[in-house]
Amino acid sequence: MTSLVSSKHECHSESTPLPFRWQRAVLVFCLIGVCWGMLFPALAKREGVQQRSRFLESEGLNPAAFFYSDVPAALEAQSRLQQLQQRQPDLFWSPRTSSGISEYD
């Protein structure tokens, strides 16, 4: 029975010599190391980045936070919005159906 794939066109990783693949892996890790150890610290020292960092810190924002609930400023804002909505229930309009119940409730 004839093979559908010729031996010349087998998997690319098998045709690439092992030393060359290692060289590529080492190169990638070196590039990551240079970025992490030299480029990123140099960028962090720039005035624009420092200003943005000071602004975020003064506002109580954590850019590394995964959830809004991890940021105290977001919790404060949510609390203020809930207080506003309790005082003025129609402040944030939402479409009502004929039954008077919002499809978003």
Draw up the topology in text:
Layout (H helix, E strand, L loop, with lengths): L11 H4 L2 H27 L2 H12 L13 H16 L18
Instruction: Give the rounded overall mean pLDDT.
Output: 77
Q: Percent helix among the residues?
A: 55-70%
Question: In percent terms, what proportion of residues is strand?
Answer: under 5%
Radius of gyration: 28 Å
Overall morphology: elongated
- The helix/strand order is HHHH
Tally of separate helices? 4
| Largest beta-sheet characterization | none
Task: Explain what this protein looks like in three dimensions.
The chain has 105 residues and is an all-alpha fold. It has 4 helices and no strands.
Task: Sum this structure up briefly.
Helices cover 56% and strands 0% of the residues.
List keywords for this structure.
56% helix, 4 helices, mainly alpha, 105 residues
